[in-house]
Design brief:
Helix content is 11%, strand content 34%. The protein has 504 residues and is mainly beta.
Length: 504
């Protein structure tokens, strides 16, 4: 079995510790000498001020002298006699509103407008083409111009152009467009994209709708409607970009003299327009409430010559016709149009929901106010600019602008009471509804007898610029003074008062 036993101890020396001790070496380091510097500065600040007053005794003496002077004879009696009358007049003045709209203007606005540029395309001028439409791009630096003809004659096959000028470009040549797009037929309408500066849509005399991309200089045609059962068969007189239900996307609304208003979406893969909705204006379906004085003549279709979108209501748009009809329409209308089907892929709907009092001739232009949801302007061959409310059939106001046609009216983007009208006499009349006089606040006359001002466009990004197109093939860019661009404090409230008026 096991037993206890005592043995001698055994020791083992550590070779590791010995090797570590032998590997240790001493090391040292020395940093550079640290230099120190002392500096001091001293400034001297001295202020001396003094004032002097009249001696108190001298001032008191002068006051006593004035106090002891005798009053002018009858002054006290006069002041007591007129005191009540003066107080009554002061109270009346405090309650009066006679000068509510008066603005003191210390600046000299002797030159309300001045010519900034005079743009032209020599090839179009040599062929006698007219400027039919102009539009600023969304940056406000590029202006697009469409060429065609507005006079009588068969010019359906006449070649035309779309030209652009970048006014911010260094070395701008007014006689040479930055981009010239050849178009096989006359361009009757033009509109730049509200978000993408390179996109321009246009309507042609042939009935086609075209989309151009100005960044593609070799082949700028991005999409076109072509000639199909869905497209227009008459000249397209108005095009506009319409926000779609999907955020950030836009469609193109086109109106023609054939009585059709069509809403298109763009298929970029196929390079074509796709019909999204179609509306037909038929005389029998015009609301009867205020159109009883309108006598139907000829065809049952209503030729559309002007179009406007409401910036306040995405469901509302306005149309003007060749016969003077002025209609408020709805995109959401589900009423079937009483028009024969011509093979369209989309059913025709009747959009008219309200009829305003008809005008005496074709309506060339409609524009909704950017400052009031119910106000809009219309103008045409009668030479009058009519101010309307969406809530009343009769115009609130009619202004005599010209003895000739009015081709376009447009509200100022910055002045709620200001609008401009392009006339067949070649002048652009600028009216201020806040003035007591109904005479124009300013007149733009570029000269040239017999040349009409066919179109105009305010620059929303640079509101002091106004572009005017003419039948001599030129586009004048005019600079407006601050008096025509700066909004007065009570201008909106005055516009509200005008809108609340009841038409006669």
């Amino acid at each position: 079995m096991f037993t206890d036993e005592a043995l001698d101890s055994v020791s083992v020396r550590s070779l590791w510790r010995k090797s570590q001790q032998s590997a240790q070496e001493s090391r040292g380091c020395q940093t550079r000498a640290v230099h120190s510097t002392e500096a001091e500065v001293q400034t001297v600040s001295t202020t001396i001020s003094c004032t002097q007053t009249e001696p108190q005794d001298q001032a008191t003496e002068q006051l006593l002298q004035h106090h002891n002077e005798p009053e002018p004879p009858g002054l006290k009696d006069f002041l007591q006699r007129v005191e009540d009358a003066v107080i009554r007049e002061l109270v009346r003045n405090a309650r009066s509103h006679a000068f509510d709209w008066f603005q003191v203007n210390w600046e000299d606005h002797s030159q309300l407008v001045s010519c900034f540029h005079r743009l032209q395309h020599p090839s179009a001028q040599e062929r006698g083409l007219h400027v039919t439409s102009i539009s600023w791009n969304c940056t406000g630096s590029v202006i697009a111009c469409a060429y065609g003809r507005i006079d009588d004659g068969d010019w359906s096959t006449e070649k035309s152009y779309v030209c652009t000028w970048n006014l911010d470009r260094r070395g701008l040549n007014p006689k040479q467009a930055d981009l010239v797009i050849d178009v096989p037929t006359a361009v009757t309408a033009l509109c730049c994209h509200p978000k993408q500066p390179a996109l321009i849509t246009g309507g042609l005399y042939s009935g086609e709708v075209v989309l151009w991309d100005t960044s593609r200089t070799q082949d700028p045609v991005l999409a076109q409607s072509g000639m199909s059962a869905d497209s227009h068969r008459e000249p397209v007189y108005q095009v506009a970009w319409v926000p779609l239900q999907k955020r950030g996307e836009f469609g193109v609304l086109s109106a023609s003299s054939g009585g059709r208003v069509l809403l298109w979406t763009v298929d970029l893969d196929q390079g074509r327009f796709v019909l999204n909705a179609a509306y037909a204006l038929v005389r029998q379906q015009v609301p009867h409430s205020s159109s009883s004085s309108f006598k139907a003549r000829g065809s049952s279709t209503i030729g559309v010559t002007s179009l406007a979108l409401s910036p306040w209501d995405s469901d509302t748009f306005l149309v003007g016709s060749e016969g003077g009809l002025l209609l408020r329409c709805s995109f959401s209308s589900q009423t079937s149009a009483a028009a024969p089907s011509e093979g369209q892929t989309v059913p025709l709907r009747a959009p008219a929901v309200f009829s305003f009092r008809p005008l005496s001739g074709p309506i060339h232009s409609i524009h909704c106010s950017p400052f009031h949801r119910n106000l809009f302007l219309s103008a045409g061959t009668d030479g009058l600019a009519h101010l309307h409310s969406l809530l009343q059939a009769n115009p609130l106001l009619s202004l005599r602008v010209s003895d000739s046609y009015i081709f376009q009216v447009q509200w100022s983007p910055t002045r709620p009471l200001l609008f401009a009208a392009a006339t067949g006499q070649g002048e652009v009349q600028i009216f201020d509804l806040g003035r007591r006089s109904l005479k124009p606040a300013a007149t733009i006359d570029q000269g040239g007898a017999g040349q009409a001002a066919t179109c105009l466009s305010f620059n929303c990004q640079n509101p002091d610029l106004l572009a005017v197109g003419r039948t001599d093939g030129t586009v004048g860019v005019w600079q407006l003074s601050a008096n025509l661009t700066e909004q007065s404090p009570r201008e909106r409230s005055q516009l509200e008062q005008i809108a609340n008026q009841v038409a006669e």
